[in-house]
Amino acid sequence: MSFERIAVVGAGAWGSALANTIARAGRAVLLAARDRAGAEALIERRESPRLPGVRLDERIGIAPLKAEVGRYDAVLLAVPAQELRAAARAIAPELKAGTPVVACAKGIERGTHKFMSEVIAEAAPAALPAILSGPSFAAEVARGLPAAVTLAAREEEEAAALARALGSATFRPYHSTDVRGVEIGGAAKNVLAIAAGIVAGRGLGASAAAALVTRGFAELFRFGRALGARAETLTGLSGLGDVILSCASAQSRNYSLGIALGKGARPAAAQAGGILAEGRFTAPVLLEMASAHGIEMPIAAAVVDILAGKASVDAAIEALLTRPFRAEG
Description:
Elements: E1 5-9, H1 13-24, E2 28-33, H2 36-45, E3 61-64, E4 74-77, H3 84-91, E5 100-103, H4 116-123, E6 128-133, H5 138-142, E7 147-153, H6 156-166, E8 171-176, H7 179-201, H8 206-226, H9 231-234, H10 237-246, H11 253-262, H12 267-270, H13 279-292, H14 298-307, H15 313-321
Parallel strand pairs: 1-2, 1-4, 2-3, 4-5, 5-6, 7-8
Antiparallel strand pairs: 6-7
Helix pairs in contact: 3-4, 7-8, 7-10, 7-11, 7-13, 7-14, 13-14, 14-15
């Protein structure tokens, strides 16, 4: 399989970073903005407003999103999780059967409880759904700093071919067939990052942060295993690797949201400003799915209560600290 012409839908920070990476890999790449005005601004400035100071590679083509984007050899959907269905529908009319459509969002669709690969399969039936996830900040990837991620598709040959097409000296995709595991790791770690940010914002110390992340990862692992994810995926780049990155750096939007909450900001104020933290949408969906499968996730539940204004940060922390003692596991 040869993927010489690759389109990236979504000209935000991550879409722009991926477009730069693909250009460095020597592929012909189109960056499709979701509206004409956005495309025209990008053509003029060669810089995404979401990624200031990082110039788009001159080899990157720029255009508004149209159905014709589906004619490319592979399409990466670098749009927010809750907008992925609309992006997949936009390219579906021109999509050839078996064309890889790669979700680059980390989340679960509200209302349907669908993972990103399931959304692609429904919205663009001709597509071969795939997922790209892992510990990577857009600004670093865009500048060519080293990063390693996981790229998963149903068939190993296709996943490996896609990884080769996207990979370069500084961007290393490891391929997998555990699509569900990669999706769960990316979605659940965003919720955990909010919790870690709350601990940091509240000034509870490094010991509390380590305990929170460890116990939070145990929740992520239980949830993943119950839904069929492989253990090695959950402890790999797209699981534990992404947890390590997102739960310790203010570059993480979810961690930054948590810091604001921990410092006393009201949920509505902490979520204002146009900065998208996927975890705030994923948290209630994750908890609903966990409850349906009988999986206990007290840290995720605390995040949901804080975001919904049902509990103060202090009350949520106290509830976690006064839970009955139990064996680790």
